[in-house]
Amino acid sequence: MADTVVRKRPESASVRQPVRLMIIDDSLVARTALLRMVDGAEDLAVAAVERSAENALEVLRTDHFDVILLDLDMPGMGGLEALPLIIERSRGARILVVSSLTVDGAEHTVEALSLGAADTLAKPDSRSLRSGYRDVLLGKIRDLRRAAIAPRGAKPVPSPRPFSRKRPGLLAIGASTGGIHALASLFAGLPEPLGIPILVTQHLPSAFIPAFARQLKGASGCDALLAEDDMAVQPGTILIAPGDASLALKTQAGRLKVRLDHTLSPSGCMPSVDPMFASMADEIGDRALGVVLSGMGRDGAQGAARIVAAGGSILAQDKDSCAVWGMPGAVAEAGLASDVLPPAEIASRIASSIGLAACR
What we know:
By secondary structure, this protein is of the alpha/beta class. It folds into two domains: 19-149, Rossmann fold (3-Layer(aba) Sandwich), CATH 3.40.50.2300; 170-354, Methylesterase CheB, C-terminal domain (Rossmann fold, 3-Layer(aba) Sandwich). It has helices at residues 28-38, 53-59, 79-90, 101-104, 106-115, 133-149, 179-189, 209-220, 273-284, 301-309, 326-333, 343-354; strands at 19-24, 44-50, 67-70, 94-98, 119-121, 170-175, 198-202, 223-226, 237-240, 246-252, 255-261, 288-292, 313-317, 339-341. α2 packs parallel to α3 (79-90), α5 packs across α8 (209-220) and α7 (179-189) runs parallel beside α8.
């Protein structure tokens, strides 16, 4: 079933539990390249290598892995078709899609992320061993490992803050790793039309934003547009931060408009959630409603503090439903959240704050 089960490394005092990896790829060249890149990393261990999704699903019935590297373009059951089943059977493993389709087709990448893949990376090629690809690959695996092995139970956080009594005038959502899947779940629960403008900052390369906009339009039923300078902020429309600028707000001639911010935020992210939240606090104060979904790091925490100081409200995704609880965890642990909930329940909370019934 497995064509390779790799190398058990001796335990040391510093590395007691290496990350257990599974590689699923029909290409011998790609499998060999990935194995060579992981080899020598004492904190990582490839525990199984499979040539098909069908074989991998059988292995997952009895074995457990922390991170799974998945190709999308395979004969038989393709990676996209297999992804929901892999997530279900892997019991908490994080899925890193490693595929040429992440370069050749942004639609495939966004679809994989919406189905629950935690992150994506192009498949290695002949230049990869010389280009720094290995460092990127191992960095992504280690980041996902930290999420995969973190305790899944609830961690005590400060008591929820009071929710603003004002009807929200605008909804702004920030997300990163795992966020596209969470956004799909959230929009599935929101009523249509919501009746207020929606802003979205999702950490994604610029090339993927158009496909992401189409995915959001399908999930929400609303127009989803790439934000541009001076664009009017209107109910019934989702405005999305471009990949090379943060989405912020300004008031001009009494109307709320887009202001693209090209400066690097303190979080180092571009686009960044912090300028979006901070400008919303400045422009609409206690009518601001921010949501922080799954993501690595702390982007959004500073902006969330600005919203709370202005009298607005913040909702955060809960740990058990997150691919990575970094961003929502930073907000929740700072005592900035009015509720910490799964995406579907966040949708219900948003709907009730506007006086609407959530979708079921």
